[in-house]
Design a protein that fits this description.
single chain; 476 residues; alpha/beta; six-stranded parallel β-sheet; 17 helices; 12 strands; 14% strand
Length: 476
């Protein structure tokens, strides 16, 4: 033993950067809100077409969102990009602006709703103007890594007693992540110098490890007792400053390293103590003449062999106690994970219908309700049924028993119940030609309840089940 790996096995405080370490580092579109008279496909298609030539990470996220939805993109012309503002381009003869655009004097109800939701969700807003008129807004967020909660739980069980997150991001999204992950402390709006100061303060309490991936993290990595760089997509500066580099873009490798270091140190100490103890006992017998030289030599060889065999236990690679998935199970996990990615954006229809009801647009709410009900019955519920029939039985062995997926199956039943209730509301509204006042309260509760339940269910499956497939965290 020795060096940073042994130190990692002893560390009790772990300091983590947020972007690229606890989150994916790849923003994605969470919602598209459009002005009256516009459609989501029109606004997103124009924005993505204008952003195709931009190297900005948010522009790449908008283009990827359009491609995931299967929208056709056209090559823009007269492209102009200004740092801090965004992109301006001509798309199909229309001048399109995408980015951080001022909306002074244009606060309409829908733009006010976007600002409120973005503040609460910790999302970044890319505003879209078409021919000078505000056409829509694309909200983007950096999602939590699916393997982050499981990894931090494993680190806690392996001896880490304090988890601290440092980020240059705003307090609202930082606090949300801290709450979800159960972190001991969250410090937002941290400059590189602030991060170094916080790491040094943590070192005064206990042996401290720091995990990061960006060039801004390099000074803090160097200041920690053990610096750990996410090297797959991290900067060269952070890798050079770190003591340990995780070459795979997987946070759970950190938990593997911690557990391996702790287990290896325990086995090494055990082998050393037992080996020296047996040798001392044998020497005592030899000193009083009870052990002939030839027998003593053979006994010492036997002791050495036993110590070596015990030390070889460190080569076992039992990381988290779960049985590896079969090839068929891995394929199913990847298939259902892909379906989650395709369905996630459609969940917003439930919230959109509720907002239209609250705004008094009962006819528009009926149309959105019909689309949402079609999505539930044609796409989402068959997906949930297939999970119950195929995926969960395949995971029962690796997870230890069928009871490990029982709570998810129970949630499927509740999703079915609320979906049937929603379908009944649709039939009642279709008979009346619009959502009626008598339906509003129960329908709002049904829509918001189903939306929250599905968002939670998706996250739970991704954190508990989908991370079991090797490479899934890399792709998320």
């Amino acid at each position: 033993g020795g060096g940073p790996l042994e130190s990692l096995g002893q560390a009790t405080t772990l300091v983590l950067d947020k972007t690229g370490t606890l989150t994916s580092g790849r923003p994605r579109g969470t919602d598209v809100v459009v002005a009256p008279g516009r459609t989501v496909d029109e606004v997103l298609g124009l924005a993505a077409s204008a952003d195709q030539l931009s190297p900005h990470v948010l522009a790449a996220a908008i283009v990827e969102e359009a491609r995931l939805r299967g929208l056709p993109l056209v090559v823009p012309s007269s492209v102009d990009e200004e740092a801090g503002t965004g992109v301006s381009a001509v798309v199909d003869g229309r001048r399109v602006h995408v980015g951080n655009l001022g909306i002074d004097g244009e606060i309409a109800p829908w733009t006010a709703s976007v600002l409120s939701r973005a503040a609460l969700d910790g999302a970044v807003v890319a505003w879209v103007r078409v021919d000078g008129e505000m056409a829509g807004a694309i909200m983007l967020s950096d999602p939590l890594r699916p393997d982050a909660p499981r990894t931090l739980r494993r680190l806690r069980s392996a001896g880490i007693t304090r988890l601290v997150m440092l980020t240059g991001d705003r307090p609202a999204p930082a606090r949300q992540i801290g709450t979800v992950l159960g972190l001991d402390e969250v410090a937002a709006e941290q400059s590189p110098a602030d991060k170094v100061a916080r790491v040094r303060a943590e070192r005064e309490r206990a042996l401290t490890a720091m995990v990061g991936d960006g060039v801004n993290d390099a000074p803090a990595l160097a200041a920690a007792d053990v610096g750990i760089a996410m090297g797959a997509r991290g900067s060269t500066a952070s890798s050079e400053a770190a003591d340990i580099v995780l070459t795979a873009d997987r946070l759970d490798r950190l938990a593997d390293a911690k557990l391996i270091a702790r287990r290896s140190r325990r086995i090494a100490m055990q082998s050393a103590v037992v080996g020296m103890g047996l040798s001392l006992v044998a020497m005592g017998f030899a000193a009083v003449g009870l052990l002939p030289p030839a027998a003593g030599a053979l006994l010492q060889e036997g002791i050495d062999l036993a110590v070596i065999l015990n030390a070889l236990r460190a080569l076992r690679t039992d990381r988290d106690g779960t049985t590896p998935l079969s090839r068929d199970a891995e394929d199913m996990v990847r298939r259902f994970a892909g379906e989650h990615d395709r369905m996630r954006d459609d969940l917003s229809m439930l919230r959109d219908a509720a907002q239209q009801i609250s705004a008094g647009d009962r006819a528009g709410a009926l149309r959105t309700l019909q689309s949402a009900d079609d999505f539930l019955r044609d796409t989402l519920l068959p997906h949930e049924d297939a999970e119950d029939a195929a995926l969960y039985p395949a995971l029962a062995g690796p997870l230890g028993s069928a009871e490990a997926t029982a709570t998810m199956s129970r949630m499927h039943a509740e999703i079915h119940r609320l979906s049937e209730r929603l379908h009944s509301h649709r039939e009642m509204a279709e008979e009346a030609g619009a959502v009626t006042a008598e339906q509003s309260d129960d329908l709002l509760a049904c829509l918001y309840g189903l939306y929250a339940l599905l968002c939670l269910h998706f996250v739970q499956e991704e954190e508990n089940f989908f991370v079991l497939a090797p490479g899934h965290a890399d792709q998320s």
